[in-house]
From TrEMBL:
UniProt KW Membrane keyword: yes
Membrane topology: Multi-pass membrane protein
Name of the featured protein: Vitamin K epoxide reductase domain-containing protein
Domain Vitamin K epoxide reductase: from-to ranges: 8-149
Cellular compartment(s): Membrane
Amino acid sequence: MTAQRIRPVGYGIWLIVFSVVGWWAAFQLTVEKFFLLENPSEQTSCYVSVILQCDKNLGSWQGEVFGFPNPVIGLTGWMAVLVVGVAVISGARFPRWFWGLFGLGMLGAIAFICWLIGQSIYHLAVLCPWCMVTWAVTIPAFIATAVHLLRNGTITRSAVVKRRANRLMAWVPLITILAYAVVIAMAQLAGLDFLGEIAGLIR
């Protein structure tokens, strides 16, 4: 018996969009990493200022926690999310254990991203443009997945929870915006004038 009783097309489309954007960000970071390896004295194309840059992140130990560049994780991980998204809108029905493993993968992704956000803001004192794109899609992908696992019976069999989770899915964009606001506030409180940098770029 499968955990999924409905065909969540909207959720599948979200997964596809998030994965494409996330994969592209990981690809760009990989290209920039290769550039730095070949030109260690040069600046990458995503270097905007002392605060907005990829160079410091890519050159730090935090940028290769597992012994290889973090973007490699994104290149592989987002492809898995893309496959699931395509399968979902195609009408595929996965068993409960599959959704459980997928949920654990997304939990690991958001935990890693939260750690990287903290390292970037409080230790490296920089905001990497392509990293922020990754943060921007990982956060809603995790939130949407958590809500979906509640409504499709993976986390609980309670009919009440399923109904409430189904209604909660419409609030995922707002929850995501609030999460973005928290990250921006963290950067501002840490002394990284993120909003000022963005305003400067617009002008």
